[in-house]
Design goal:
alpha/beta; five-stranded parallel β-sheet; two-stranded parallel sheet; 8 helices; 16% strand; globular
Length: 238
Amino acid sequence: MRVTSIDPGMVETEFSIVRFHGDKSRADAVYAGMRPLTATDIADCIAFAVTRPVHVNIDDMIVTSIDQAVPRASYAGTAGNKEAFPMLVSVAELAAHAADPNWTVFDCRFRLTDPNWGKAAYDEGHIPHAHHLDLERDLSDPPQAHGGRHPLPDTNRLAKRVGECGARPDSVIVVYDGGEGMAARAWWLLRHIGARDVRMLDGGLAAWTKAGLALSTDPPAAVPLSLSRASRWMTWSM
């Protein structure tokens, strides 16, 4: 499996108008004097990343329009100011750290056709010590007139939720699902609110059970934390 994080600059799509409630003049003003990226530009970058030879993995791709381009320091590994963390964790490594207080695990199973299925499946059996994150309760805000079926959640609320499960920005956070794709959403959102080391379980829950490892029906112990600040780079304190 290859995982690529694509970080785009300003992209002009139909959402540009939706977020201003249909006011095209306000949407156009955002891009006044510049030529923004388009959805086609991002699709082209995705196509490039997934069509590399099998031995090539592009970890991060920062894509901006010429008008947004700025000099950036290059780095290799953990050199420089940017920390490099793996995006995947193996079943063996997770099993070795399942009870580690510095690791927090989230089960993200959810089916759009059956919103109650994910929590029910979690209750029937999950990776030991894993907490459950629900798409509609935790990883989205309630739908409004605009913003789509599952708008992005309030960052403070999400930070409080994962903080109550014992996670901190410097924790190792592992997310998994059963192949529904919600772990990828959780990975992105947790990175967005400031968690530095977030990993997806390679192969998901199926890989865990295929390895013959047991599931648990016991709820994990909560480790309440006091949230002092939540923003794109948040701070949790005991």
